[in-house]
Amino acid sequence: MPRTTLEYSGELEAKLMTVAREDGRTKAEVFRRALSQYFKIREETQNQDRKIAVIDRNGKIIKELVFIF
Predict the structure, then answer these.
(1) pLDDT at 69 over 70
(2) How far is CA 66 from CA 2, 9, 27, 57, 63, in A?
(3) By CB distance 3.0 to 4.6 Å, which of 3, 33, 50, 65 could disulfide with 45?
(4) How far separated are the first and last CA of the chain, in Å rounded?
(5) How would you write the chain as a 3-class SS string?
(6) 46: closest CA among 19, 15, 67?
(7) How far apart are CA 67 and CA 62, in angstroms?
(8) For 47-59, what is the mean pLDDT?
(9) What is the pLDDT of residue 16?
(10) What pLDDT digit, counting tens, does each position of 7-43 carry?
(11) Residue 4 pLDDT greater than 80, yes or no
(12) Contacts of 25 (CB under 8 A, 6+ apart)
């Protein structure tokens, strides 16, 4: 498996550690999943407005996420 080295802020490290701990995953697995989702979102929104909606159980939009690539 290819490897890379990243530099990122302490704030991002704290969030990464929290998510990894809460999800029972390694930091590397959280990175891999996040990167995979990034590519999926980018691919799915190609040539579109690049918005994703967070919808509650009743179908009501609670938040729209706008992606800038």
Answers:
(1) no
(2) 30, 23, 26, 21, 10
(3) 50
(4) 26
(5) CCCCCCCCCHHHHHHHHHHHHHHCCCHHHHHHHHHHHHHHHHHHCCCCCCEEEEECCCCCEEEEEECCC
(6) 67
(7) 17
(8) 86
(9) 97
(10) 999 999 999 999 999 999 999 999 999 999 989 888 8
(11) yes
(12) 19, 33
Q: For residue 38, which amino acid is it?
A: Y
Contact 67, 50 (CB under 8 A): yes
**Cα–Cα distance between 28 and 5 in angstroms, integer?**
11
Residue 55 pLDDT grade (very low, low, confident, very high; cuts 50, 70, 90): very high
Cα–Cα distance between 47 and 39 in angstroms, integer? 14
pTM recorded for the entire structure? 0.72
Residue spans of the domains in the chain: they are: 10-66
